[in-house]
Amino acid sequence: QLPTGLYKKVLVILHDSILPYMNEPTLMIDFLTVAYGIGGAISLLALNGLFILIHEHNLEYPDFYKKLYSLLDPSIYHVKYRARFFHLVDLFLSSSHLPAYLMAAFIKRLSRLALTAPPEALLMVIPFICNLFRRHPACKVLVHRPNGPEDLSEDPYIMEEEEPSKSRALESALWEIRSLQNHYHPDVAKAAAVLNQSLSEIEDDISGLLELSAYELFDKEVKKKAVDVPLEFEQVRGLFGKKNDIFAEHFTLD
């Protein structure tokens, strides 16, 4: 048992400063699997090392995707290691051989959590979800269901279900992204509106969006050039601004 702070320090550097220099990296299997099961930021950081062991050393991890699915909670859009986490999730979900029910569960959970996410996270996760649709066309039923979100008396998706296969995500519709089309931030609303049209076959490059910050968004808005819009208007007269209003005879606006 290690203190939480020490766990984080070790896991941050494990994948590039420790594993490459070990004669038998597989000795770290137990350590990483235990860390992966702890939850929270420690589980997110353990993903890096597990990815190397799975990809390069043939580690078989039962219920890996079930655990990865359980890591999706509201904090993923706010944590310090958000960019690293989504980079790895993108890699783990890149295979076109994953079952449709699993992908639909990930898409639906990410979309539901997006309802409370900040704009900088939404501008990253919406293209991410679009990429998942491109890899798995069978999941497009969530967007193009004949009886759309308006016709659902209730959402059949079970958010609390830990097993993706039992979440009933494929029976649902993606009303969450439809809601984000009315987001207060115009860039988010524009990004969400992409799903109203046919998606191109080429995936969006999200690498530049993973570390997008609120400061960058604010800075971008501040630096926008204001456009002077010519307006034709009738000058207000009187209290309520009507031409023949009795108030105009007795009240004026200086």
UniProtKB/TrEMBL annotation:
GO terms for biological process: ribosome biogenesis. The chain crosses the membrane at residues 31-54, 85-107. The keyword Transmembrane helix applies. GO terms for cellular component: Noc4p-Nop14p complex; small-subunit processome. It comes from the Eukaryota. The keyword Transmembrane applies. Keywords: Membrane, Transmembrane, Transmembrane helix. Residues 43-192 form the CCAAT-binding factor domain. Coiled coil: none annotated. Pfam families: CBF. InterPro entries: CCAAT-binding_factor, Noc4. Belongs to the CBF/MAK21 family. PANTHER family: NUCLEOLAR COMPLEX PROTEIN 4 (PTHR12455), NUCLEOLAR COMPLEX PROTEIN 4 HOMOLOG (PTHR12455:SF0). This is NOC4L protein. The lineage of its organism: Eukaryota, Metazoa, Chordata, Craniata, Vertebrata. The gene is Noc4l.
